[in-house]
Amino acid sequence: xxxxxxxxxxxxxxxxxxxxxxxxxxxxxxxxxxxxxxxxxxxxxxxxxxxxxxxxxxxxxxxxxxxxxxxxxxxxxxxxxxxxxxxxxxxxxxxxxxxxxxxxxxxxxxxxxxxxxxxxxxxxxxxxxxxxxxxxxxxxxxxxxxxxxxxxxxxxxxxxxxxxxxxxxxxxxxxxxxxxxxxxxxxxxxxxxxxxxxxxxxxxxxxxxxxxxxxxxxxxxxxxxxxxxxxxxxxxxxxxxxxxxxxxxxxxxxxxxxxxxxxxxxxxxxxxxxxxxxxxxxxxxxxxxxxxxxxxxxxxxxxxxxxxxxxxxxxxxxxxxxxxxxxxxxxxxxxxxxxxxxxxxxxxxxxxxxx
Length: 355
Prior knowledge:
Organism: Salix suchowensis
Radius of gyration: 20 Å
Largest sheet: none
Mean pLDDT: 75
Order of helices and strands: HHHHHHHHHHHHHHH
Membrane topology: Multi-pass membrane protein
Subcellular location: Membrane
Number of helices: 15
Distance between the termini: 30 Å
Region (Disordered): 1-25
Transmembrane segments: 49-66, 78-97, 125-142, 181-199, 205-225, 237-257, 269-295, 307-325
Number of strands: 0
């Protein structure tokens, strides 16, 4: 997965400061803004950006499988409660790491600086991240629910259409424009998704609708990270912390009034060792996944984050097909998924060569 940060100066993965001195903080800040060494000559992606993308893909594959196991194999009744557990786990990790001065919440922030309040973040900065936190909550709730109603192979296929929503949101919020090769690769991805979906023999309208809603909320969330995250002065850990302390109480209240907490207490496998292991690993993976999403979107772009989600689908589909099944074999379905993978590969190629 991903190892936690230390204060060693050799650590180039996590965005934490390595020295309390002013010149050390300034060098760290400049490195985060300007970027690291390129992945290779002529590439528009840095090595650090490539590491972030790979880390995201590894975490995402495993998290989807564990969430699917909890919601489908164990028939856990509430995706919202799992989201709440993941949020509590994430905030607990961040609080402990910040309290022990292992990480910082700001770009170039000193690990030895005393915190002036319990939130570790000024109230003004916290309020500035409020739109990001609300889009994060919406993204988490809808995405968790979307896993339940569709088999894993078709879920990953439909999720690849997120790229269209992301491109639209980036254009609206940031005026981002893309080259013809990028448009061509994205078009291939969408074409493959439609071909695969049209021949899905296990079609479920409600399941499809929730997945497309998840695509929309994901696009809004990623575009908001790209816009607010880079200007807030917070690093990935700081943004995750703000999301957790804003969304946690809201989600707790929501699960209480909906009766989700009561259903959880009556869940027959609540204290089953197998279910507890699945839930614990889901929470841990959610922490690393959220960190890698912030890091990948900040270092690269919202669209790159989306395409990374497409590339990891190869492993998700293969493992999901083997473990959970649920998708009858169909030639056109396979053709559609292959087109999606080709489109994702082309995008990654054009991104790496800087086109």
